[in-house]
Records
---
Amino acid sequence: MNENNLDKPMNKQWFWHPKLPVGFYPYFDWPPKPKEIFNFVFLRWLQKSDRTIFLLLSFMTFYLLMPSLDTMSTLSFDWISKLIIRNLILFTIVAGGLHWWFYVKKGQDMKFKYDPHPMKKKSKLFSFGSQTYDNIFWSVVSGVTIWILYEILLLWSFGNGKIDVFYFKDGWFWFIIWFPLLQIWQSFHFYWWHRFLHIPIFYKLFHSVHHRNVNPGPLSGLSMHPVEHVIYFSTLLIHFIIPSHPLHVFYHIYWLVLGTVSTHAGYEEIWVRRKSLLQVGSFFHQIHHRYFNCNYGNPEIPFDRWFGSYNDGTEEIK
């Protein structure tokens, strides 16, 4: 990759974008392409990626920061307060850290930035007149709070036996395969509730808070109306139905919270000292924020292709 080209706009629509057309992951290609699926899984799971980071965080949380199941069988200030502090710190480090790197320090300037425009600082559209403050308020006051409530419910349910813990010894294959299958479930859940919130009345009442961010940043991902947060995190209720372990829950949560932080980053990659540190952005979803009525889902399942709402990012369809 020629670094000199990273500081020049690619076209009138975007400062930078990945190779187009932006497409879907190979899971549902027809006819099936086993080699492409294997290569995709290998690159995403067995090498440095957001998935491996979320998985490592899940193990760290479970083995180092989670109270015993017996402790969580009763609701108590002690373990709940530690959970609240842990989640606030984690969100601040990831969302705040990415915002600081990209938009405060401007650590890589415009390299790999999708939209050439800066974050809004004076706009009546946003709470407090600022995109950043608006995003912080809705993300923390509503988003982190509802995340914590869902997590307390699930961990308390594991502790008192309302959810049976599915251990590795109970079936190693299911224990492992449930991690990637959670992303398929999440994609299914996300597409349908997202389409629902684009019905005009529900959009006006709830989803418009999130769509204030035509040019999103890391703090925009979890910036939603409380009703949308309740729906967004309701995907976690699958663990009351499908055999799961707290590790699966933590992975699912980090995918929801930290994943939406990274996919709304507004940048494709974290670029440090002329090297790509990590891919973070989602141009597929960035297109949705720009044009509103397309790409309701994500690349895991090609719902948008199947239902006619697919925008592949090419100039011809603008």
Note: The chain has a mean pLDDT of 94.
---
Amino acid sequence: MRCPFCNSEDTKVIDSRPADEQNAIRRRRECVNCAKRFTTYERLETFPLMVIKKDQSREPYDREKAEAGILLACHKRPVSVEQVSAILDDLESRLFNTGRMEVPSSMIGEIIMDRLYDLDAVAYVRFASVYREFKDVDTFAQEITKLLKGNK
């Protein structure tokens, strides 16, 4: 690490501790040349996750967009903000654990629907109606029948 004061490459770490809710390491450093101290942060480098949409176009993954869809499905339902946050955390964990830089939007939709299915039946049907593009009342009825029989 180069000293920001004298540009020397000879520095030493004098203290390290977790920072940013365990997502980074804060390091206190001292320059061997000028004896000035400075702080650096070490973070895990993450790659940008791209979403392949149905029309094969690509856009960056956007947590807020996924959250908006879940919140809309859960509107006036007994689903807490913490539960929505847990769905998003699980979604992101599963997406990043694939190790792929691009994931299809269908994967995102299926993961969210799986979580909503276990959480709230009404929210599940609402989300599925948009995600699967229900065209008529019969499609709703079929999905509700599957839900009542315990099938996804």
Note: The radius of gyration is 23 Å.
